[in-house]
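Translate structure to sequence.
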């Protein structure tokens, strides 16, 4: 019996260790502290992007439009991404991170064959011509105030995959550290070290596991967040 218990413990330890990931090569680093830093980024929807004290602030004047700000780089299928975020408007807002974004047939999302996306309309991203994962890690929209819970969805199709843990607290105005780990079929996200998403894509129910692609920061029209220090690493082999 003792040997069985020891063997079980060893199996558990080995399995847990196998699931750990470490940072490999740094493939992208951006302080997001100046207009020069964001050269080449693509803004969809009407929003102001301003810089103050080393932070990039993003908001829509008069709450006119939802908006997405895309990093121009294609990121690998397996990566660790981190950034800081801070809320400047606690009465309402919603933040989403898109990742592994590509056209339905593998196109770059900025390919000339892709439909134009100019208004920030959510349908263009969730039921349009692209595949991606997205996490709503701050959720206090005027349409659904005080939701608290972070959602992971897979697109195209707006499939709700996981919805169990709270994201950034809706009234918190301090600095938050965000982290995503995409490793093969595994998708995890953390807020200040607290796990809010932990899911394994079976590659069947909602289509194949998504791989390399773009990362974009989305805000609903009521939102004013600031961002800094966006970094992405390959996962060490």
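Result:
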């Amino acid at each position: 019996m003792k040997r069985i218990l020891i063997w079980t413990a060893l199996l558990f330890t080995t399995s847990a260790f196998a699931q750990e990931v470490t940072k490999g090569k740094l493939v992208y680093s951006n302080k997001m502290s100046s207009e020069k830093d964001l050269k080449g980024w693509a803004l969809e929807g009407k929003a102001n992007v301003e810089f103050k004290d080393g932070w990039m602030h993003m908001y829509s004047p008069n709450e006119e439009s939802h908006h997405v700000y895309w990093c121009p780089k294609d990121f690998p299928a397996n990566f660790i991404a981190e950034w800081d975020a801070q809320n400047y408007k606690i009465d309402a807002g919603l933040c989403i991170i898109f990742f592994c974004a590509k056209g339905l047939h593998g196109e770059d999302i900025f390919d000339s064959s892709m439909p134009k996306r100019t208004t920030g309309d959510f349908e263009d991203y969730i039921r349009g011509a692209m595949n991606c994962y997205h996490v709503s890690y701050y959720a206090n929209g005027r349409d659904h105030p005080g939701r608290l819970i972070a959602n992971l969805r897979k697109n195209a199709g707006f499939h709700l995959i996981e919805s169990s843990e709270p994201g950034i607290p809706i009234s918190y105005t301090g600095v938050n550290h965000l982290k995503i780990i995409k490793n093969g079929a595994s998708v995890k996200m953390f807020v200040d070290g607290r796990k809010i998403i932990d899911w394994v894509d079976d590659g069947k129910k909602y289509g194949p596991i998504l791989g390399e692609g773009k990362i974009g920061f989305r805000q609903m029209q009521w939102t004013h967040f600031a961002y800094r220090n966006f970094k992405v690493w390959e996962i060490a082999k």
